[in-house]
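Incident review: delayed structure delivery

Summary: a single-chain prediction request sat in the queue longer than the usual turnaround. Root cause was a stuck worker, restarted by the on-call engineer. No data loss occurred. The affected request and its eventual output are reproduced below so the record is complete for anyone auditing the incident later.

Affected input:
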Amino acid sequence: MNGTTIISIDANTNEFPDSIPMVFRRKSFIWYRSQLLFYLLRYNRDTLAYVHQKIAQSFVPASIEAHKPYISIFARQPETMITKKKSKNLYSLNRYFELLTNVSFSANITTVYLNSDEPTFSEEFTELNANKSDRYTLLTMTLDKDLPFNVISSMPQDARTKNILDCLTDIYVQVHADVHIGTLASKYCRLVDALRLTLGKTIPFYTPDNLYLTHT
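Output delivered after worker restart:
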C-alpha cells in the first residue's frame, strides 16, 4: 500500500511498478506468500508470554534453546478427523521414523519434537525408539488443538482463545526447530514451512505424497 493507494503485484511476473524496490523484484510466489503469513502471524507480547510459559511447563530444561539442535516431526494422521476416510497417502509413523533416522545421522541430532493429530503416535514413537536403544530424546506437549473448525467455533470464548494459543505454541516450536520433517499435503504443515522460509530455513525432508512435493 502506498498511502491510500493499493498496488497489486503479480508474484509470477517480472514487470513491477517503479515504486517497488529492486530487492523485492523477481521474487517467487512462495516468497511473497511466506512474508505475508509471517506478517499476519507475528506474535504480540501476551502471545509470546503464553508460548514461553507453556514451553516451560512441558520441557526440562524449560526453554527450546536448551534443547537445540532438535528435529521437529509433523506426523500426519492417515485418516481425516471428520469423515474418518482412509487417506490414499498413508504414511505410517514407522516410515517417518526411518526418514528421521536418515536425517538425524547426517545432522547428528538426537532430540525430537513430535507433533501429530494421532494420539497413539507418541506411544508408537517410544516403542520404535526403544528398539533403537533409545537413540532419541522425545519432546512432547499437551496442547488443546487439532479440533474441527465447527467444534472450535462453537466453544466459549475462553476455550477458543486457549485452543488458538496452543496452536500458536506448537507452530512456534516447529518453526524454531533446526530440521523439520513433514508433509506438504497438509495445510498446517505448509503454514509451518512458509514461516520457516522467512527465517532462511529450507526444508527438503518431506514425505512422498502425491501433491506438494516441492516449494514451487
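Verification: The CA atoms of residues 117 and 146 lie 6 Å apart.
Action items: add queue-age alerting; document worker restart procedure.
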